[in-house]
């Protein structure tokens, strides 16, 4: 994996995202460094863009 400057070095790398898991509906955490989201329940990992697209197409409410 390539080395790169980490802008989140002084921050928690996980940011609670305002999205639900596409598989189980659990809370997704954005893994900001890699542009991915991971579910805290089933540990599925999704590309952030995929989650954005899915949530826009199918709003949670
Ligand atoms: Zn899940």
From TrEMBL:
Going by the entry's taxonomy, the superkingdom of the source organism is recorded as Archaea
- This chain's protein is named Small CPxCG-related zinc finger protein
User: Whose protein is this, by species?
Assistant: Natronolimnobius baerhuensis
> What lineage is this protein's organism placed in?
Archaea, Methanobacteriati, Methanobacteriota, Stenosarchaea group, Halobacteria
């Amino acid at each position: 994996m390539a080395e790169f400057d980490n802008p989140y070095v002084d921050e928690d790398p996980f940011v609670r995202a305002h999205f639900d898991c596409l598989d189980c509906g659990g809370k997704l955490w954005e893994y900001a460094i890699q542009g991915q989201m991971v579910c805290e329940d089933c540990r599925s990992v999704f590309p952030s863009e995929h989650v954005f697209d899915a949530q826009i197409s199918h709003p949670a409410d």
